[in-house]
Amino acid sequence: MAKKMGVTMEVGNDGVAVITISNPPVNSLASPIISGLKEKFQDANQRSDVKAIVLTGNGGRFSGGFDINVFQQVHKTGDISLMPEVSIDLVCNLMEDSRKPLVAAVEGLALGGGLELAMACHARVAAPKAQLGLPELTLGVIPGFGGTQRLPRLVGLAKATDMILLSKSISSEEGQKFGLVDALVPSGDLLSTSRKWALDIAEGRKPFLRSLHRTDKIGSLSEARAILKDTRQLAKKIAPNMPQHHACIDVIEEGIIHGGYSGVLKEAEVFKQLVMSDTAKALVHVFFAQRATSKVPNVTDVGLKPRPMKKVAVIGGGLMGSGIATALLLSNTRVVLKEINPDYLQKGLKSVEANLKSLVSRGKLTQDKAGKALSLLKGVLDYAEFKDVDMVIEAVIENIQLKQKIFKEIEEICPPHCILASNTSTIDLNVIGEKINSKDRIVGAHFFSPAHIMTLLEIVRTENTSAQVILDLMSLGKAIKKVPVVVGNCIGFAVNRTFFPYTQGAHMLVNLGVDLFRVDRVITSFGLPLGPFQELYSLWDDLLRRLGDLAGHRIGMAVKEIYAKAYGDRMFRSPLTELLIKSGRNGKINGRGYYIYEKGSKPKPDPSVLSVVEESRKLTNIMPGGKPISVTDKEIVEMILFPVVNEACRVLDEGVVIRASDLDVASVLGMSFPSYRGGIIFWADTVGPKYIYERLKRLSETYGGFFKPSRYLEERAMNGMLLSEPKASSRSRM
Ligand SMILES: C[C@H](O)CC(=O)SCCNC(=O)CCNC(=O)[C@H](O)C(C)(C)COP(=O)(O)OP(=O)(O)OC[C@H]1O[C@@H](n2cnc3c(N)ncnc32)[C@H](O)[C@@H]1OP(=O)(O)O
């Protein structure tokens, strides 16, 4: 049975005190744990019957680090004094500088502050496969319990900067190779070996090593400077808009130049500044928002248990289907991949193989595991193998009649418990399931392309989808390392619907005379990885990708019409994409779009595309007085992203998502909205609903209905409410 939160100490006859952290589920270092640790270490240091100390975590996990809830409290209250003093009082004075040797017995995970406590011990004994890392930068802060100083001293500067800057965890096996772990022992021997190790140090049989005082792994000053220079370049590239990466390098450098203790003092000071930064506020929000997605009222709180999904069928071996099959295989699920003819089937199977190969060549998968995954795949041309599948995921082209026919067939052939899922991104699930009886088994499994890499999985429920089916798909999603977000049924669901105005805003700006390459530059410096023109189809890209070679552009346009029918009152119709394609530019596919795509080099803006832009401007004729408008970069961001916020408001108003933060997670994982801005709603709340409303109102007066503020936005602005505040009454689609 799980112990209650607290820190315990048991002193054995051998004179070893075992101090255990207990705070399920991850033994996070909440304030009572920190004060408990202080008390127990003081006690152990004073007691004459204690010769040595072992620090461990209860329940097979050492510690998941400092309690992130405290960051959230600091953000809510603005009171930084809520952060306990740990780095000097506990870690340096009571632990590392203790006269009694201290050994960390690490199992499961030691992350952030957890690993920092372990590094302050005089040796570390670990069980196999424990996860060790300092992921603080993903929360907008830096390690704050001495990690910036001790990790380089234990594993060397190059490895430490790699682990900290990229928030990369390593296994205890790798930790042993690099010197972070002193001994690797089976889990059953962890405590006995750690006790013995501690006594060996106490009795002089093993060295008494204090990590902060070590210099043997740091190298010369010039070597260290060269590594830090490269690390700064890396930080510029991976995190141009975030403060914590550069701050972290400065703190590491302080320790290299002035010594570890000086580094620890600077670390504590910078850590406190960063806790209060907007970046930390946004990233901590995303951390909790992501965890909240796994809580679905009336699904995860009603005592249901997920059923095992041992065998899954995927219908359609195109880009989406083969990606979905790959994701399933990677998590050891048996997959049946069905196609309509041997040619397409071969193509599908080859795509899965290619996906796996590319993971192997990028070092993300071993050859052995790729082979095992492939052995779980079976290609078929008929339904014979469907008799014992637990789930079918249909991933064929966006054609209503075809999907209806498939659902009728699978309802007949599959066992009665089998989940009937569609990967559609545009078609109403009720329409797809119109002709079948088991409507409770119909659900949307909307993967994002490439499905084996993108982590978002939109689970689309209709009013008939059963709670069990939703739970099963959530559980499968987690097993295949996705973040499932449960959403309601509407055209575009939550993500594509919210972002459908994104490309249109960009097109409007270009038709109003703004340079399209500037639009891309402004949007990428805002933090999106690509500008709206950097991939030819932008939003439609996701839709078109799933259409494969079969359907092409014509169906792409048909999909666009589905959106126009649903949301036509707020669409800006730009002829730009069509003109571009007419001019023989298909984007990456044929090496030319708005940019010139050459293998091995970055896409270059193509100045000759400006004649196409001119033609589009002539046709739309929206430039006031025929002259290009003049806008600031800030206005460009607003004209593209405020309409997205506006649509997000409608999504909230209609209850398409359970909570506003689900849309934040979905925008970050599905649309690569910068996580350090907290997701689309969090960002909008930071900017202010009133400001957004007023800007949109003014824009709609000048440029029309595309910018017209939604009722929800208007109400929130008028009442001084945040967009994320829950609604009093709900007209939910859940
Ligand atoms: C001063 C220091 O340098 C600063 C720090 O230490 S900052 C903290 C650094 N640590 C981290 O970033 C680790 C964050 N946690 C994780 O990555 C993952 O939770 C994990 C790998 C530990 C476990 O993953 P997993 O088993 O999938 O469980 P997961 O669902 O994520 O978490 C389980 C619960 O623990 C909570 N939790 C995890 N780590 C936590 C932490 N450090 N503080 C508070 N709560 C935490 C989660 O919020 C979740 O709560 P919920 O059940 O109420 O939603």
The counted number of beta strands is 19
* Overall geometry: globular
Q: Would you identify the CATH architecture of the largest domain?
A: Alpha-Beta Complex
N→C terminal distance: 36 Å
Radius of gyration computed on alpha carbons: 28 Å
Report the β-strand fraction as a percent range: 5-15%
Would you kindly provide a written description of the structure presented here, covering whatever features stand out?
The protein is of the alpha/beta class and 734 residues long. It is 49% helix and 11% strand. It folds into three domains: 6-276, 2-enoyl-CoA Hydratase, Chain A, domain 1 (Alpha-Beta Complex); 311-489, Rossmann fold (3-Layer(aba) Sandwich); 496-718, N-(1-d-carboxylethyl)-l-norvaline Dehydrogenase, domain 2. It is built from 28 helices and 19 strands. Helix 1 (31-46) links the parallel strand 2 (16-22) and strand 3. The structure holds 3-hydroxybutanoyl-coenzyme A. 3-hydroxybutanoyl-coenzyme A (3HC) binds next to helix 2, strand 5 and helix 4.
Write a brief structural summary:
The protein is built from 28 helices and 19 strands. The protein has 734 residues and is an alpha/beta fold.
